[in-house]
Amino acid sequence: MSDRFLPRPADKFTFGLWTVGNVGRDPFGAAVRPSMTPAEIVYFLGEVGAYGVNFHDNDLIPIDATAAKKAQILNDFKKALADTGLVVPMATTNLFYDPAFRDGAFTANDPKVRAYALQKTMNAMDLGVELGASTYVFWGGREGVETDASKNPLDAGKRFREALNFLCDYAIDQGYQLKFALEAKPNEPRGDIYLATTGAMLGFIETLDHPEMVGVNPEVAHETMAGLNFLHHVAQAWDRGKLFHIDLNDQSIGRYDQDFRFGAVNLKSAFFLVKFLEDVGYDGSRHFDAHAYRTSDYEDVKAFARGCMRTYLILKEKAAQFNADSEIQSLLAEILADDGSMDEFKGHYSPARATALKAYAFDRAALGQRGQPYERLDQLVVELLLGVR
């Protein structure tokens, strides 16, 4: 019998070079796995059934590579893409690893650093477009402070805005059909990172010269590590037409950025996220920005990658079961019941509607006595996820 949870190209499952290629190094320990070349990572992803591969500029081309080395790497990478059929939907720039960016990139106090960051990003955009990317992500990993004595947040915001306006104009001038996606994170590696949440990013986007080009790339771990409800941020982005990309992984609240396998920690939260994406018809990449455990060898990394995709597909099936479950749908109908008595107050404001609403006599005691069967509903969700429905 065929496995219905095997990934297909239509699922648009992608991984970054930095994800399955992660060698297990952390602040307290050296690498535990040998490094793979970008081309080897593409073949690796082809073996596990991924649709696409994404990259930072220096994941693909080392920052100090010679022209000859760059040409060789690109040739090998393009051949691997052709051999496997994988595509490159998204690219981004590494503006956080090199010591030049220790005080940030677009928001750095040093104008030479800010100019270098623009130069590096333009070159990386050229590379991304050459390889087929249509979405360009900006994660400001060093755009922040450890002490507010070091940087004026108003100046930092103006610098970030100026950089994005410049890069939008560069994309337009080059004829690139790129969408920009901003990725929020509250902290790590900086003590405090500017524009720390998806909501903050959405507000910032409206101040740009080309807000229509710019959306967000929310990541599960980044909102969750701050104790926030990731689904709510995704819904807000979708409502504004700004969900240009999404990073899927998992995370324990209050911990460092763990980047666990999707669904490994908060299975119910992962279920509601998958259900939302499928219900609204999100058609972008399902990008897994996650890492295998440091204890894994590369066979286990394959299990990790397959597990990310398999969990998503299982939860997608569970979402369809939720939508078809008669008892669940009956409870939802009860919860959402509307007798039409408030119809005259719905819609946009008018003086007549406001007057009528002010005059209406509500039964406050009755409103306060009505319970909602949320415990029953949530238990049904738990039983659905546990496989007993």
Task: Please supply descriptive tags for the structure shown above.
2 domains; globular; alpha/beta; TIM Barrel; about 45% helix; 15 helices; about 400 residues; 10 strands; 8-stranded parallel β-sheet; two-stranded antiparallel sheet
Please outline what is shown here.
Helices cover 46% and strands 9% of the residues. With 389 residues, the protein is an alpha/beta fold.
Can you tell me about this structure?
By secondary structure, the chain is α/β, with parallel strands linked by helices. It folds into 2 domains: 315 residues, Divalent-metal-dependent TIM barrel enzymes (TIM Barrel); 60 residues. Helix content is 46%, strand content 9%. It contains 15 helices and 10 strands. It has an 8-stranded parallel beta sheet with strand order 8-6-4-3-2-1-10-9. Strand 3, helix 5 and strand 4 form a beta-alpha-beta unit. It starts with 12 loop residues before the first strand and ends with a helix. The relative contact order is 0.10. The model has no long low-confidence stretch (mean pLDDT 97).
